[in-house]
Amino acid sequence: LTHGAGGRAMAQLIADIFAPALANPYLAQGNDQAAMPLPAGAAGGRLVMTTDGYVVSPLFFPGGDIGSLAVHGTINDIAMSGAVPLWLSASFIIEEGFPLADLQRIAASMGAAARDAGVPVVTGDTKVVERGKADGVFVATAGVGLVPAGLELSGDRARPGDAVLLSGSIGDHGVAIMSSRENLEFETAIVSDSAALHGLVAAMVAAAGPSLRLMRDPTRGGLAATLNEVAHQSGVGIVIEEEAIPVKPEVAAACELLGLEPLNVANEGKLVAVVAAEVADTLLAAMRAHPLGRDAACVGTVVDDPHRFVQMTTAFGGGRIVDWLAGEQLPRIC
Amino acid sequence: MLSAPPKEPGAPVSRERLRLRGVVQGVGMRPFVFGLAERFGLAGSVRNDAEGVLIEAEGSAIEAFVAALRENAPPLARIDAVERTVLVPTGERGFAIVASVGGRAATLVPADAATCTACLDELFDPASRFHLYPFVNCTHCGPRYTITRRVPYDRPNTAMAGFAMCPACAAAYENPRDRRFHAEPVACPVCGPQLSHSAGEIAAAIRAGRIVALKGIGGFHLMCDATDEAVVAELRRRKRRDAKPFAVMVANAASLALFAAPGAAHLALAETPARPIVLMPLRGDGERLAPSVAPSLAQVGLVLPYAPVHHLLFHALLGCPDGRAWREAPHPVALVATSANPGGEPLVVDDADARRRLAGIADLIVGHGRPIVVRADDSVMTVIDGAPAFVRRARGVVPDPVDLGRDGPCVLALGAHLKATVCVTRGREAFVSQHVGDLDTAETVTFYRETIAHLTAILDVTPEGVACDLHPDYRSTRLAEELGPPVVRVQHHAAHVAAVAAEHGVPGPVLGVALDGHGIGETDGQPGGNWGGELIEVDGAGWRRLGHLAPLALPGGDRAAREPWRMAVAALAAIGRAGEAACRFPAVTIAGALAARIDGAPVTTSLGRLFDAAAGLLGVRTHQAHEGQAAMELEALCGAPRTLAHGFVLADGVLDFAPLLAALADCDDARAGAALFHGTLIAGLGAWIGEAAQARDHRTVALGGGCLMNRVLAEGLAADLRGRGLVPLLARKLPPNDGGLSLGQAVMARAAMASASAAAGGSQ
Ligand SMILES: [Fe+3]
Ligand SMILES: [Mg+2]
Ligand SMILES: [Zn+2]
Ligand SMILES: [Zn+2]
After folding, report:
1. Any idea which of A288-297, B90-99, B681-690 has the lowest mean pLDDT?
2. What Å distances lie between residue A97 and A128, A129, A232, CA to CA?
3. Active site residue B478
4. Which of A88, A248, B92, B261 is the most buried (most CB within 10 A)?
């Protein structure tokens, strides 16, 4: 792939790689914009829109690659509002010299992820930059979705007494990325949990409806960052139980080796829901009935706390503050 | 005793204003001055004001009066200066104590002090109205800081506000000739607080092998028979404290030597009014303490009774002997006296809280009606290089200030993340708070916030700047960002050096070492790197890294600090023997995997982690139950330090102990290895520091950082440096670890603020 190629070369690249991989009627319109019909149920509902950039290294990791991740991540950002995701856009920044075969693989994986999710990539863009101006390939995706009438999820709606539910084990994505980055050979391969959660969300909305206060996907910064965001936005404290948080044994082992705290490690196919206590059991049952919520658990409670602390109680009964880290996990023991 | 004043017949009458500076308020200074003035036939007055105590005196014996002031000052007072101004005599008659004036006057709250001998005499005197009263106190003793809600330090502003004085106590309080003149906590059985259980009941529970929670001065203690292994082990189980040593209280100074081998310095320290826990060598052939009191350590922390209730408890345990002989005689009775703080939380201070939080730990909870307003753990001290040194600074010492030698802006410094303290400067003084603890629990963070609010309130200041560490994830850093005033970030190890220099009053530029666990480094203004064995020159707000230890891998971040086997693997990798990891640590399943990826790990120049590496290599332990456990055990194993020839390499300021690590890897005798490690470490550090001191023309070296809690290292290094003609400065007024960091941060931030405002002024 060379930088500075003319319009023709770029058109060729799109026609050869992206158009077939992402094929759908809207993309096939071939215009600088895609035109879509208003979805059914638009009246009374609300449109949501999100955008996200993906700069993962390595580009290919166990359980996915940057292409599928860019689809799942943006679908999940839409779905966390309770919305039905409708359409995606994709933009690629490609470093000169990036192997075409790899680009093909990414486009194919992106197309497959979009098809599986039933959410088409309706428009896109491609740029090739000089060597060193990008690292392989960067992807930016945007998405539009529709929130059904009557549903209003928001990060400031957690109230003391609410239950905190988690859809499954934590740390899988971050540890999969790190182990492939560090060439770690574990006895059991750890696979990213990258997945589109809108199906699970639909089942949850059906089960709990307006009793759902909010949902978040604990991506960068992990569960710790997400819970701290919620505590701050809602002006409450959250107490979680260490025992209740699912962590796969192989993820726990890798975290031990790497010196990581699973609570601070990224996920790409998990969600946290805060829900009124009285429907927590119903919601949990609905989550467990969905393949992406099989290991769902109630992990904590929202409490009244002017300091907005997220605390974790351990098996020994002691509590400690769960931190929202500035960046990587730095040592604090002097 | 005071001798009769010298007669000065015909001496001319003069008048002077005398300004007393130092610890002169709330310590019985005014009645003392009053009594002295009467004795020397002087007229005039004495009062407390913003700067200390102000005396006007007129008569013919002022010279002798001043000499007696200095010589016979009350036990808790410390007169740093007497400034004298000559006035014109006015012919005044009589001497008066004048009420305090407002404003910042009398804002210096004294530290808590152990029950004095005169009060003890009354406590055990059947004829005294204070007989067996657990709250007896006077101007020379009793609670102070821990009962003070706000300033000025007057009874309505203390925990005694709810206790109206009876006529007898009121009369004593008002009488300048009484030992209780203006003793704010004065109380008696008629008017004062009561204990929930009698000393006899508490003693019976202890004798029956029970665990008692006893409310004291700065919080609750958990107490039990320290000679009974079953109950001590049970206390460990209930407190979920595996190995951290427990402090032990014995009946009196004479009893110390039954259990330990105190030197004269230990004895003197144990008997100071501050009554710290004093770490002293265990005595193998003496009265037996239960092995669980201080597992695997050669030292034990002993403390003498400091509240009347402690004395009453020993009196009851000894069968309530008459007379005073028992108070001087040695007794083979010892009680565990450990802070009542479940699982890393702050000390319990409140009766209701005690019933809630200590129910699963204590069999009997003994409270009393005098609230503890300010929580303060026992101070822990030791003797290093012949002089007292702090391990933990709290009750009995706080809020004594450090004199910074000059004025500066008011700064609030927030310390580190573990062993947090805060420091507030006011004028030329720096006030470091009591030990707060590790900022890992909501309860400790709340205590930390309360400490900041209380300290700034009793000093009556509004900080102009806030100092914190470079670490983005210390809770202290987060709080600094929330507080409002401009934030000054201070590098961890520069602050360690600055703290030691400041308490010794040494101005910059000063050469120092930070021999420490971990702190974020800084290169070209950018924070980063895991530092902890640093040679630094500090000058005001500026500093320069002159050298460091050779980097070792730091596999697993904080886990490496908890698991010495990891640092041992790092050491093996450093000497090209990472392949031995798996077979050296067969019980650690991931040892081989860790060794295989160690090249990608971050690195550290920490000396604390080098200690862990040595402990791991020598098989002392693979995992630690509490911070510093492996290093403390390594120290305990060390007899006379021995130096390995060519055990270190020194090049361009980088000190590399690889040859020593290789020797330790081949050493199968932990005692020999511990001696070799300490000795070679001292020799290497001495050479390293000596080279820099010569190159940069320094005579003085400040020694800071948590590793200097190690007595063998601190004393060995100090001796080595003296041998090179250098003057080593050890931490004396504050602990050398992160407990003293806030002082260094405050001093450097003040310098930064002063130079910033000078620059701003100059540019106008
Ligand atoms: Fe430190
Ligand atoms: Mg996003
Ligand atoms: Zn007294
Ligand atoms: Zn009374």
Report:
1. B90-99
2. 9, 10, 45
3. no
4. A88
Kindly provide the ipTM of the predicted complex, given to two decimals. 0.92
Cβ neighbours around B671 below 10 Å, total: 13
CA B580 to chain centre: 42
Chain B contacts of A305, Cβ < 8 Å?
442
Query: Nearest ligand, CA of residue B187?
Result: 4
Give me the CATH code for the B407-504+732-764 domain, please: 3.30.420.360
Tokens representing residue B734 in the block: 């504050």
Q: Which residues does A234 contact at the CB level (< 8 Å), separation at least 6? A: A155, A156, A157, A158, A159, A302
Answer whether residue B582 shows pLDDT above 60.
yes
Asked if domains B199-384 and B548-730 share a fold, the reply is no
Quote the DSSP letter at residue A100.
Answer: H
Q: Using CA atoms, how far apart are residues B448 and B454, in angstroms rounded to an integer?
A: 10
Residue bearing tokens 């690195």 = B603
Identity of the residue in B530, B560, B597 whose CB atom sits nearest the CB atom of A184: B597
Taking the centre of ligand 2 as the mean of its atom positions, its distance from the CA of residue A93, in whole angstroms, is 18
A and B: number of Cβ contacts within 8 A: 100
* Angstroms from A259 CA to nearest CA on chain B: 4
Q: How far apart are CA B634 and CA B670, in angstroms?
A: 8
- pLDDT at residue B165, rounded to an integer: 97
A contacts of B452 (beta carbons < 8 Å): none
What is the dotted CATH code of the domain comprising B199-384?
Answer: 3.90.870.10
Asked if pLDDT for residue B2 goes beyond 50, the answer is: no
* C-alpha closest to that of A21 among A80, A90, A98: A90
> Domain residue spans in chain B?
14-97, 199-384, 407-504+732-764, 548-730
> Looking at domain B548-730, which CATH architecture does it have?
2-Layer Sandwich (3.30)
- Closest ligand to the CA of B130: 4
Helix, strand, coil % in chain B, rounded to nearest 5: 35, 25, 40
Q: Which CATH class is domain B14-97?
A: alpha beta
Contact status of A232 with chain B (Cβ, < 8 Å) = no
pLDDT digit string (tens) for B119-165? 999 999 999 999 999 999 999 999 999 999 987 788 999 999 999 99
Determine, for residues A333 and B627 on separate chains, whether the beta-carbon distance falls below 8 Å.
yes
B532 to chain A nearest CA, in Å? Answer: 8
Name the nearest CA neighbour of B457 among B746, B747, B148.
B148
Hey, is the C-beta of A303 within 8 angstroms of any chain B C-beta? no
Among B442, B558, B593, beta carbon nearest to A259: B558
CB B694 within 8 Å of CB B686: no
Which of B15, B48, B566, B621 is catalytic? The answer is B48
Q: Do B561 and A333 touch (CB under 8 A)?
A: yes
> Do residues B133 and B189 make contact, with C-beta atoms less than 8 angstroms apart?
yes
Q: What percent of chain B has pLDDT over 70?
A: 97
CA A195 to ligand 2 centroid distance, Å: 15
| Beta carbons within 8 Å of A6's beta carbon, 6+ residues apart | none
Any idea which residue has 């796969």 for tokens? A248
Residues of B in contact with A333 (CB under 8 A): 418, 517-518, 558, 561-562, 627
Q: Distance of alpha carbon B517 from its chain centroid, rounded? A: 19
Residues 6+ apart with CB under 8 A from B191: B163, B164, B165, B166, B169
Q: Is residue B78 annotated as part of the catalytic site, yes or no?
A: no
Residue B749 near residue B495, CB atoms below 8 Å: no
Q: Residue B428 contacts by C-beta under 8 Å, 6 or more apart in sequence?
A: B403, B404, B405, B406, B407, B408
pLDDT for B382-397, tens place per residue? 999 999 999 999 999 9
- What 8-state DSSP symbol labels residue A42? -
Domains of chain A: 7-147 (3.30.1330.10), 163-321 (3.90.650.10)
The encoded tokens of residue A33 equal 């914009």
